[in-house]
């Protein structure tokens, strides 16, 4: 990683070392037409009580994913410092400009925060946010939980996830965190393109890193909101920061064994799923069709599973374009 030594222009209005609860902001200067010396104010909450580990909790790394913000605004409002041993840093909406706009990427610079790490203090607004997390927040953390969902264009089975890592001790600690989160599904996850991700930056710094994909479609359900709220408290209990044992539910472990689990569209048209999320699929079985929309009488193109497993993710909108991720098949396993 090429990490700058130049100071960040971002200023926190909270003191990370003070006991008690503080609701404040990360103030990031953004000079523009309607506010010459204006700033982006990213909400942050710090809850600290004595000595103990630090958890860094984040949502809306992508701005159109809502389980994280709902669970984290709720946690920041309800958790009391006396219930905490150690420190919790809560940023419900990391890419705050994208979250305000309801879009995956930032409306200011089109920055995809989860492809902008480690970031730059002298870069775009999105790169400045990434840099602040890399050099100022991640070093404070022992355990990191970053909430994702599918956003407007993908839908997922609700799962918590971690990655295979070269350090097997660190990898085990990450999967212990996934198990503690206790989503209905738990995934050993691979990435299409891990360069520039918050995940990769945190993992390379040796942090215990847990992520999620909790449905999607650019909205939230009662079920996934409750999974997120229970999951974050479970991770805090697992880390010893909140007392009590995690509320563990049965989880189905899944694996993404190779890039064959991703199915990509090679046509434009209207998307017809032949399998729904959670359904079993066999290798070679047709899981979706794309119908051309220019005229009648034209055959659809078929898309098949490359492995046995279950449908773990799918394209969400009704229309699909060439190159879109159409589906993800995951294999059923007994554990990480
Ligand atoms: Ca995401």
Describe this structure in words.
The protein has helices at 67-78, 96-101, 125-137, 168-181, 198-204, 222-238, and strands at residues 11-12, 20-29, 39-49, 54-58, 86-91, 143-146, 154-156, 159-163, 185-189, 208-213, 252-255, 262-264, 269-273, 280-281, 286-291, 301-304, 309-315, 319-320, 325-333. Helix 4 packs across helix 6 (222-238). The strands form two sheets. It has a 15-stranded mixed beta sheet that branches. It has 336 residues and is α+β, with helices and mostly antiparallel strands. It folds into two domains: 3-253, Zn peptidases (Aminopeptidase); 259-333, OB fold (Dihydrolipoamide Acetyltransferase, E2P) (Beta Barrel). The radius of gyration is 20 Å and the shape is globular. The two termini are 28 Å apart. Calcium ion (CA) binds at residues 62, 65, 148, 151.
SSE blueprint and pairings:
Blueprint: E1 11-12, E2 20-29, E3 39-49, E4 54-58, H1 67-78, E5 86-91, H2 96-101, H3 125-137, E6 143-146, E7 154-156, E8 159-163, H4 168-181, E9 185-189, H5 198-204, E10 208-213, H6 222-238, E11 252-255, E12 262-264, E13 269-273, E14 280-281, E15 286-291, E16 301-304, E17 309-315, E18 319-320, E19 325-333
The structure holds calcium ion (CA).
Characteristic terms for this protein:
four-stranded antiparallel sheet, globular, 19 strands, 336 residues, alpha+beta, Aminopeptidase, 2 domains, binds calcium ion, 15-stranded mixed sheet, OB fold (Dihydrolipoamide Acetyltransferase, E2P)
Mean pLDDT: 97
Strand count, sense and closure of the main sheet? 15 strands, mixed
CATH architecture of the largest domain: 3-Layer(aba) Sandwich
Sum up the overall morphology in one term. Answer: globular
Instruction: List cofactors, ions and other ligands.
Output: calcium ion
Radius of gyration: 20 Å
Helix proportion: 10-25%
What is CATH's topology name of the largest domain?
A: Aminopeptidase
Number of strands: 19
| Beta strand % | 25-35%
Terminal-residue CA separation = 28 Å
Into how many domains do the coordinates divide?
Answer: 2
Q: Unreliable segments (pLDDT under 50, ≥5 consecutive)?
A: none
